[in-house]
């Protein structure tokens, strides 16, 4: 029997299939290949479009997707790989017209989409450890609360890749959690400007974003002030329980303004109260929420779309 491309069914198929957050559908023919597509769409790496479509860099898995998902039966001259097109049943290196109405379609990502990197994997593992480290931390700020078991749930969802973790040195803020898909970025995305957390402040930022993820898991309908208020207090409580009360509100603000300092000071005071077994007063919570509402980063920002993980 003539040699055919080796195919390896992926342990976990790309989901969703086909991609839903693409920039463009591209009908491909035998005149196209991964290198022509790289040039056409100005991608930095020839693997970009492959990984976006198939979520793998394994050649056997790529062959499986080309054959099973795209319907390619045309093979390269050395028969090592499938290529775009339809091959003759007796000699698949020879192209034949495709079945009537049958086309081969690839999906092109938005420019801001990038491949996962080894750094993302290391950051993910550190994030899981940090969040599991606060799985005994329960806190309530006003009408909103988060429990230690919910932090543990977030850690499990990160481990299961239901929440995506990425390092983005160009991120305009220190950290961010985005619940909904946006221009090629996946839903339930946790991003950090730093590659690995090297300080207590950066590890506390991981706890901060885990609060947003926990509220997303619950599908909470909350205001920006409510969700950020709870996250800032969790952030402060994580520092307090790591470094002690003498540390003060070390958490890094986003803009270096006096209003940053005000939010961090108010959150720190509430964290001190909670750590001592108390409950923040309505007045303290109101002052924190007001400071958040006045901050340029949050002022006028729509409520988060927490739609489940």
Largest sheet: 3 strands, mixed
The geometry reads as elongated
What radius of gyration results from the CA coordinates? 24 Å
Helix-strand sequence: EHHHEEEHEEHEEEHHHH
How many domains, in number, for the residues?
2
> What is the count of DSSP helices, taking H or I runs of 4+ residues?
9
Beta-strand proportion: 5-15%
Annotation, overall tally of beta strands: 9
Regions with little confidence, pLDDT below 50 for 5+ residues: none
SSE topology sketch:
Blueprint: E1 24-28, H1 34-40, H2 48-54, H3 59-68, E2 74-75, E3 82-83, E4 104-108, H4 118-132, E5 139-141, E6 144-146, H5 148-159, E7 164-167, E8 175-178, E9 189-192, H6 200-218, H7 224-243, H8 258-275, H9 282-294
Could you describe the 3D structure shown?
With 309 residues, this protein is α+β, with helices and mostly antiparallel strands. It folds into two domains: 24-108, no CATH class; 118-294, no CATH class. The chain is 39% helix and 10% strand. The strands form four sheets. Strands 7-9-8 form a three-stranded mixed beta sheet. A two-stranded antiparallel ribbon has the order 1-4. Helix 4 runs antiparallel to helix 5 (148-159) and helix 7 (224-243) packs across helix 8 (258-275). The two termini are 47 Å apart.
